Amino acid sequence: MSFVEYSDFIQDGDVAIVYLGHESMMPVKVQKGAQTQTRYGVLRHSTDLIGRRYGSKVTCSKGGWVHVLHPTPELWTVTLPHRTQILYTTDIATITMMLELKPGSVVCESGTGSGSLSHAILRTIAPTGHLHTVEFHQQRAEKVAEEFKEHRVDHLVTVRNQDVCKDGFGVTGVADAVFLDIPSPWEAVRHAKAAMKKHGGRVCSFSPCIEQVQRTCEALADQGFEEISTIEVLLRVHDVRTISLPVPDFGSDPSAQTEPDAAEKTAPASAPIQDTVAMKATVPPREIPGHTGYLTFATKPRTS
Amino acid sequence: MADNGDDESQYRIKGGDYVVLKRGEIFKAVQIQPKKKVIFEKQWFFLDNAVGHLYSTTFEIGSGGVLQLRKLRDAESSTDAKEAGTDNRNIVDDGKSQKLTRDDIEMLKEQGLKGQEIIQQLIDNSSTFRDKTGFSQDKYIKKKKKKYENTVTILKPSCRILAMMYQGREPGKIRHLRYDTLAQMLTLANIHAGSKVLVFDTCAGLVLGAVMERMGGYGSVIQMYPRGEPVRAGVESFGFPAHFRDTLHGFPICHVNALLAGTLDTTAKDPRTSLVKVLTSCFFFQAQEKKVKQEEKRKKLAAAAALLEGRNADGLVIASQYQPCPVLMGLLKFLSPSRPFVVYSQHKEPLIECYTKLKEHGGTVGVRLTDTWLRHYQVGFKL
């Protein structure tokens, strides 16, 4: 198992995602002899997990069963331990495309936070790219570095514990893309520029408040960035369900009987009048999971 | 870590390259071919002069459709210190504010004035420009630029640019797949280097190309295609390095049932070839060529079949105008357990059918029917 490479079987030392039911999942560090409590009972790693195929249905001690899934950055995003606010998959997907990330890309990121976006970046830039991620909170930086190791992506990433606004990314002229998720991104724009390749590249800043966006846009324009554009992406999850609709009864229709053909056709069906019809329909979300943040993108032009 | 390891040549435009032309928000994908006339935004020109220049360079279209480097001064001179009004209370749309007539403008064009100079003339001859607000003036210039500027920027293609291009130019060809939706699909299918991905794409090959870009030439992509030849026009526009082609396979879905039943015979010879052998030598040569082609085709089919036979694909992406449910149920059999898949449809109703079928069938978890909303924000800022 690795977050950048699939395997078929669960092994000692893997991180597996235990799927308990609708929207309910938990990450499990697989260890010989270890046990994990779930609401369906105990999972014994040596017998229930190690050596089994990812995707297997596993019965727990209380008789309930769970599915054990191969980790992906998307499953990690919904199960990871929160140490900060995190970026979710809808924004991450947009960021990945708009920053033009692909295998081989060199990316700078700050702050690392809980590493939700970092894992998705690493998945996309592997096996030849590199992520330079900067986090000013020491414990968070240490913790995320530990997770990268457990997830077997540590060879693709350098974690730096410093303040990006003061000290930059610790690299110059190497990045194809820069991502900023910090309280005052405008203070890091010049560092972003310095970190990027002279041939140019893409930058993205994530901010919840429009005032932050405005100041960041000013800084980007000031530093010569082009194609500055701010967007927001929201996800709507449609609930599919069977609905049942009552059928109105207008009473028997005497005019229908004037045509012998029609009378013949309706005769067998008309015996017991169906009072409801069932059909599949979707219900839009009652309220869209709210605003996360604005995504501001820009292009750094070639500089000599 | 300095920039020295970078290979300059990958940033230079070469003959034969697939590139994207850009003006404002308009894109067009073309190939650089010698002396080939290209029509973009009602103007024609030749791309020969672009060869050797760096990507993202902006050119001016000179007389005879010859591209010339745009002078940097031109690009920046538009926003000189200017006087502006506070609001539009004194601006009346009486159609008389512009002193230049259409004929005057045509004459300026004939005199060989550049777009920038024409716009300056329009501003100088507008009685209301000075009374417009700063925002309004910018908007005016932007509008006129679109009409009179004759510049074109040449970009290296990318999934982002091509997805936006198709959405803007030919949405029907890509089944109205928006770029924000494509972004969700690539991420939710966990497309990454080194995996084995099945793609059913009748969106001009845009989705297939996007998947290939994310795989970076590592792993394998099997295009499952309906009838005839697979559609790959969009893939060409990505301008992938030659070795990417080795990772791309094709398999016609009409052979899927035979493959699953184990009755697909990829060693079969076309009976026609043996008949041609008795003909004249001239024909014999043609028959040979035909035979070689068929042999190649057979080998390719066998290679794709071998990839599918393990039924251990890592990802499945479906984006087409076909009824998605049978496509999904047919191709899902090739996916390894615990692997994601994504189905796109322009319409919600066929996906409700898919969702219901998956729930009935069992064997999947985390099935969701979603769409995204994308909004652009106009952010006002002063320099």
Automatic annotation (TrEMBL), chain A:
<feature type="region of interest" description="Disordered">
    <location>
        <begin position="246"/>
        <end position="304"/>
    </location>
</feature>
<dbReference type="GO" id="GO:0030488">
    <property type="term" value="P:tRNA methylation"/>
</dbReference>
<comment type="subunit">
    <text>Heterotetramer; composed of two copies of TRMT6 and two copies of TRMT61A.</text>
</comment>
<dbReference type="Pfam" id="PF08704">
    <property type="entry name" value="GCD14"/>
</dbReference>
<feature type="binding site">
    <location>
        <position position="181"/>
    </location>
    <ligand>
        <name>S-adenosyl-L-methionine</name>
    </ligand>
</feature>
<dbReference type="GO" id="GO:0031515">
    <property type="term" value="C:tRNA (m1A) methyltransferase complex"/>
</dbReference>
<dbReference type="InterPro" id="IPR029063">
    <property type="entry name" value="SAM-dependent_MTases_sf"/>
</dbReference>
<feature type="domain" description="tRNA (adenine(58)-N(1))-methyltransferase catalytic subunit TRM61 C-terminal">
    <location>
        <begin position="64"/>
        <end position="300"/>
    </location>
</feature>
<protein>
    <recommendedName>
        <fullName>tRNA (adenine(58)-N(1))-methyltransferase catalytic subunit TRMT61A</fullName>
        <ecNumber>2.1.1.220</ecNumber>
    </recommendedName>
</protein>
<dbReference type="InterPro" id="IPR049470">
    <property type="entry name" value="TRM61_C"/>
</dbReference>
<dbReference type="GO" id="GO:0005634">
    <property type="term" value="C:nucleus"/>
</dbReference>
<dbReference type="GO" id="GO:0160107">
    <property type="term" value="F:tRNA (adenine(58)-N1)-methyltransferase activity"/>
</dbReference>
<dbReference type="InterPro" id="IPR014816">
    <property type="entry name" value="tRNA_MeTrfase_Gcd14"/>
</dbReference>
<keyword id="KW-0949">S-adenosyl-L-methionine</keyword>
<keyword id="KW-0007">Acetylation</keyword>
<keyword id="KW-0808">Transferase</keyword>
<feature type="binding site">
    <location>
        <position position="163"/>
    </location>
    <ligand>
        <name>S-adenosyl-L-methionine</name>
    </ligand>
</feature>
<comment type="function">
    <text>Catalytic subunit of tRNA (adenine-N(1)-)-methyltransferase, which catalyzes the formation of N(1)-methyladenine at position 58 (m1A58) in initiator methionyl-tRNA. Catalytic subunit of mRNA N(1)-methyltransferase complex, which mediates methylation of adenosine residues at the N(1) position of a small subset of mRNAs: N(1) methylation takes place in tRNA T-loop-like structures of mRNAs and is only present at low stoichiometries.</text>
</comment>
<feature type="binding site">
    <location>
        <position position="135"/>
    </location>
    <ligand>
        <name>S-adenosyl-L-methionine</name>
    </ligand>
</feature>
<feature type="binding site">
    <location>
        <begin position="114"/>
        <end position="117"/>
    </location>
    <ligand>
        <name>S-adenosyl-L-methionine</name>
    </ligand>
</feature>
<keyword id="KW-0489">Methyltransferase</keyword>
<keyword id="KW-0819">tRNA processing</keyword>
From TrEMBL, chain B:
<dbReference type="InterPro" id="IPR017423">
    <property type="entry name" value="TRM6"/>
</dbReference>
<keyword id="KW-0819">tRNA processing</keyword>
<comment type="similarity">
    <text>Belongs to the TRM6/GCD10 family.</text>
</comment>
<dbReference type="Pfam" id="PF04189">
    <property type="entry name" value="Gcd10p"/>
</dbReference>
<keyword id="KW-0539">Nucleus</keyword>
<dbReference type="GO" id="GO:0005634">
    <property type="term" value="C:nucleus"/>
</dbReference>
<protein>
    <recommendedName>
        <fullName>tRNA (adenine(58)-N(1))-methyltransferase non-catalytic subunit TRM6</fullName>
    </recommendedName>
</protein>
<dbReference type="GO" id="GO:0031515">
    <property type="term" value="C:tRNA (m1A) methyltransferase complex"/>
</dbReference>
<dbReference type="GO" id="GO:0030488">
    <property type="term" value="P:tRNA methylation"/>
</dbReference>
